[in-house]
C-alpha cells in the first residue's frame, strides 16, 4: 500500500520539516512566510506564517518586532543587518531601534565607544554613527513624539 501523498503536508509534518532545517538559515537571516514558500513550493503564506508562529511559541525562533518576521537570534533588528541594542516603540507602536554592527558588549565603556545608529521603522528617520548614549537619547526623544505608522500588522 502506497502511503505517499501529493498534497501539502499536514501542520505537524510542516513543523517537523522546518525544525529539521533551521540550521540551514544563517544566524543573521530573517525568516518569513515568503522564505518558507521559496523553500517549500506549494506552501501557502498562511500555513507558513502559522508554522513560524508555532516555532516562535516553542522558543525555537524569536520575533524581530515586525509581523511574521522571525530570526534564530533574539538581538536582530526589524530589518537589515546588525544587532539590536535597544528597541522602543513610537506613539503608533512602530519600532524605534538602536542598532550596531556587533552584539551589545557587557562593558559600559565598550558600549560608549562602539558606533551605533538608530532608526524608526514607522517614519524611516534615523541617525548614524553616534555613541550608544547619544543614540539611545535621540531614539527615546524621537519615539516620544513620532506618530509614524506601525506596519507590523500589514506584512503580507
Secondary structure elements and their pairing?
Layout: H1 11-20, E1 30-31, H2 33-39, H3 45-57, E2 62-63, E3 70-71, E4 83-89, E5 95-100, H4 108-113, E6 116-120, E7 126-130, H5 132-145
Antiparallel strand pairs: 1-3, 2-3, 4-5, 5-6, 6-7
Structure description:
The protein is of the alpha+beta class. The chain is built from 5 helices and 7 strands, in the order αβααββββαββα. It has helices at residues 11-20, 33-39, 45-57, 108-113, 132-145, and strands spanning 30-31, 62-63, 70-71, 83-89, 95-100, 116-120, 126-130. The strands form 2 sheets. It has a 4-stranded antiparallel beta sheet, covered by helices on one side. The longest helix has 14 residues, at 132-145. The model is unreliable at 1-5 and 152-156 (pLDDT under 50).
Distance between the termini: 40 Å
Provide the residue-averaged pLDDT: 83
Number of helices: 5
**What letter string, H or E per element, gives the SSE order?**
HEHHEEEEHEEH
Oligomer: single chain
Q: Can you summarize the main beta sheet?
A: 4 strands, antiparallel
Low-confidence stretches: 1-5, 152-156
Radius of gyration: 18 Å
Q: What percentage of the residues does DSSP assign to strands (E)?
A: 15-25%
- How many beta-strand elements? 7
Strand order of the largest sheet: 4-5-6-7
Structural class: alpha+beta
Shape category: elongated
What's the helical proportion of residues? 25-40%
Amino acid at each position: 500500500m502506497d502511503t505517499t501523498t501529493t498534497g501539502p503536508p499536514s501542520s505537524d509534518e510542516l513543523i517537523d520539516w522546518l525544525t529539521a532545517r533551521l540550521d540551514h538559515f544563517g544566524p543573521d537571516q530573517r525568516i518569513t512566510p515568503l522564505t518558507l514558500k521559496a523553500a517549500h513550493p506549494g506552501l501557502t503564506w498562511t500555513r507558513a506564517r502559522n508554522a513560524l508562529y508555532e516555532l516562535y511559541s516553542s522558543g525555537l525562533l524569536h520575533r524581530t518586532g515586525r509581523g511574521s518576521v522571525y530570526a534564530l537570534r533574539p538581538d536582530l533588528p526589524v530589518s537589515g543587518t546588525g544587532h539590536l541594542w535597544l528597541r522602543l516603540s513610537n506613539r503608533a507602536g512602530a519600532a524605534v531601534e538602536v542598532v550596531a554592527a556587533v552584539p551589545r558588549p557587557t562593558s559600559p565603556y565598550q558600549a560608549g565607544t562602539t558606533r551605533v545608529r538608530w532608526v524608526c521603522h514607522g517614519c524611516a528617520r534615523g541617525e548614524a554613527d553616534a555613541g550608544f548614549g547619544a543614540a539611545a537619547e535621540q531614539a527615546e526623544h524621537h519615539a516620544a513624539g513620532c506618530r509614524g505608522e506601525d506596519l507590523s500588522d500589514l506584512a503580507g
